[in-house]
Write a structure and sequence with these properties.
homodimer; 419 residues; alpha/beta; Maf protein; five-stranded mixed β-sheet; 41% helix; 26% strand
Amino acid sequence: MSHTAELIAVGTELLLGSIANTDAQTISKALSALGINVYFHTVVGDNPQRLRRAVEIAKGRADIIITTGGLGPTCDDLTKNVLAECFGKKLVYNEEAARRMEAYFRKLHPDTGKMTENNYQQAYLPEGCVPFQNDWGTAPGCAFEAEGVHVLMLPGPPSECSPMLRHRAIPYLSQLTDGAIASRSLRLFGMGESSVESLLRDRMNAMTNPTLAPYAKEGEVELRLTAKAGSEAAALALIAPAEAELKEQFGDKVYGVDVPSLEWVCLELLKKKKGLTLSAAESCTGGLMAKRITDLPGASAVFKGGVVSYTNEVKENVLKVPAGLLEEFGAVSEPVARAMAQGVRALTGSDLALSATGVAGPDRDDRDNPVGLVYVALAWEGGEHVRTVHAAGGRSRIRTVAASHGFDLVRRYLEGLPL
Amino acid sequence: MSHTAELIAVGTELLLGSIANTDAQTISKALSALGINVYFHTVVGDNPQRLRRAVEIAKGRADIIITTGGLGPTCDDLTKNVLAECFGKKLVYNEEAARRMEAYFRKLHPDTGKMTENNYQQAYLPEGCVPFQNDWGTAPGCAFEAEGVHVLMLPGPPSECSPMLRHRAIPYLSQLTDGAIASRSLRLFGMGESSVESLLRDRMNAMTNPTLAPYAKEGEVELRLTAKAGSEAAALALIAPAEAELKEQFGDKVYGVDVPSLEWVCLELLKKKKGLTLSAAESCTGGLMAKRITDLPGASAVFKGGVVSYTNEVKENVLKVPAGLLEEFGAVSEPVARAMAQGVRALTGSDLALSATGVAGPDRDDRDNPVGLVYVALAWEGGEHVRTVHAAGGRSRIRTVAASHGFDLVRRYLEGLPL
């Protein structure tokens, strides 16, 4: 049986534009993976009448309603009260929820650790529900079935909503579904979105199962293949030939399938080549290369460190870039990028070393180099390579694209591809 | 007269969770500034029947409907066709829209520059509408009034939606409104969300104009005061006494009002103290301090650079942390944090220097230090200070909170506050 879900986010802060409804994105992705259709998202403020109206509408067009937000004492448990009322449910005290909240409070406030009366209100849940205990905050969520509709309530803060979705809601929902959606994401670096789209456009429109959708993000393109079938394995089997065809077509531009990022691929490749280490000398990227690789747990096994050389002084004194190079070619130049990579490699004793020097904007540099021009270099034992990048967009995008070019050099070097 | 708007976003990619509905956030913020109430956001897929239903519901509860997405050839101009139909409008050819699209195409594809028949379809707009010409993409938007409802249609991609909102939709909407909303945001560092909330709870509930709302984000709290009045100046006058009271109450925990970030405040303070420069030695933050300050244009005037010392080797060889300290106390220790800050200060010749060494997780370090323990140090001419931080949460939050503590030390030092 095919299910249709509606997401209702409760929170005036969403209607004021203080935050974006990222919970809806997270949940929609998960529902899509379960093969549950989502036809509507609704956002409503902290207002009982309007929430009631939204729920009445949702009851008429969905058999799964998932709410986010409006739990907990700051909003008087609005969502729980309204949803219980709309489905004729009483609220009953849940001992375990109360105990868990107490434990959470003790951890958070080891000095006092006492909960207020307000907090205990959160331990009341609709009768007969499946409680979703909250190990990541205080307000518990829950699920119940009434009038042919499954109602799930999740907390609003993404740091609570996401783990409760994964550990509580998805197990509940997967019992309701048969059939599955599977998807595979090919990640490409080194081709513009419009080139990829124009190459794929006709095929994309002709495909129905799997479907093919391109997503562009800061210099990268993701190609997502999604198929529906009786089981996940059957859905994946539908995807396989299309995936092979795309890999053939885009060749070494495809840096991975279902991988989180280019730097993750680099980290895995470096780990595989036991003993190989990396460092980075960063001018315009200002620490972003280091930050991106050290975002990943386990980076310390391969990343030795780096230097952010935001002035010529640091380039000369720390990275030992010859003053003559800086003088003759300027900080934003191929020879300086090369010397920076060699310098940080010598300084840290790493096997590979990256560097980036360029103009992130908003203004041209003192030698009138254009915004977006970045030299990205990779140095290794006995050699190096400099890539000239012309990145479009604002400061943040230029920095991101430059750092990605660095990781692309590392990946291509380690995979033996032409740089 | 007070207006009520509903936002309808059209796009299956939103319901699949491929993207978040950031347009709704952007537009909601702008409407709030204009004093227009927003009671509902709706998201619907590329489906005429369901869009029609969503529009019928919106007609019954809003007098301004703003759609995003579903314009342009990839979705057969779904939104324009359905909205025109719902309000009994014919579509008529708009010569100027066609001319502008031709010009945009020539710019984008200087080689061919030819539009297809599909593209010309976009030049059809509801009769009698105000066209919103699109200087940032192809599909024009528009606005019309019918049955007492103002309908505005904007393109979906944020890079088109945002400028069209600012340059076309806001001028149109401001003619409809009188009165204004103003808001001011106090930003706090150094107090937990729950402490702030429990201090403010009663007052918050009692306040109506201005209202007071707290938002917590990665170790920071934002307190937003919002008031409605006949003019922006009158609304700000309503806010002023409450703002003064909060500043009194939270004292030097308030690091700024309507400022973008803690590092921005540091950059401004450093710029004011002409000649003062900063550097950073980062272990567990892995370049994040450098990245955050160099995200800001103009950082090169005050930030000299830094070292990411992800191994003891780099701490010893580059930062000159004595081997004996590393041996005796371990890399995650107060003496090493102190030596790292002194080391990077000597290396770069900066006036101030930050350092961070700690355990970002997911695992304890080799000396069994707990995840979340970070030593953050500030060094200056003739002195230094180390702060011991116990950060909760995952790897990303721990790194962010640690970096923020560093910037908090810089701010407090420069403002002459106790560290």
